[in-house]
Amino acid sequence: MILYLGRRLLGVLGVLLAIAAVTFTIFYVLPSDPAAAACGKACSDERLEAIRANMGLDAPLWRQFADFVTGIFTGRTMGTGQYALHCDFPCLGYSYENSEGVWDLLVDRLPVSASLAAGAAVLWLALGLTAGVTAALRKDTLTDRALMVGAVAAASLPVYFTSVLLIYGLIRLTGLLPYPQYVPLTSDPLSWASNLLLPWLALAVLYAAMYARQSRGAMIESMAEPYIRTARAKGLPRRTVVVKHGLRAGMTPILTIFGMDLGGLLAGAVITESLFGLPGVGRLFYGALTTGDQPVILGVTLLAAGFIVVANLAVDLLYAVVDPRVRY
Length: 328
Fold this sequence. Notes:
mainly alpha, 13 helices, 4 strands, globular, about 325 residues, single chain
């Protein structure tokens, strides 16, 4: 297990280094004037000169990339003399639009996106796995067909359409839920949950539909394996056969897509946060796109890549728990 973990960690470091190289090329090498791109749409000549000094564009590319990478892990001082600007660890750049470090902006918004992703993930796993396992155990029956038709219908609805329907039905017509306003979990857990329930539902409807179809296929395949017939022949309870043997073996593809989905949502759900007015990373990213705030766009890109890579590492470790053969 230790060797397996060591190999995966080396692979993660390699992937993160490759991602850093690609993002550096996109944001620092490809633009004709990276300083102008980082400054945004409106930038004076004096400010542009300061940004060029901060970014160290007069240094060789290899040196710029080395400073870029080491700054992420140790922090760095951008520029020299009167233009010197210290960027604490982890340094993801400096937003000249907001006059604040990119990491500080992300840390301020990250609890909102993390709350949104965590709650939605619990809902879509519960709904999706329940529907998928039920459909698999009742294969080719009316229940199976009804659940899969519902899953296809839910998966075909874009999240903004589902969000509008939920806002109109649960807020404007019935008043069952308040319009979402983020409340920190530590200050009022009940208000935190009630204010996020609507966005959770909007995301869970879409993802649960995909997980229902995926889990149905995985369960049908695992329940046809010889060891399932052996477990039944031994007289094991149906619940033990289904959960301990069938569902456990069928969890591998579910874990794969779950790692990707959760990692992406942790870096911000742009449409959902914008529709519900949640001040998360996704909304910050959308604002950066509209204003041309390149350092923030770069920071969110690196954050999203990092979350996805780490989530996939966690999934790989869970593979070893679900299926011991993976350890070898």
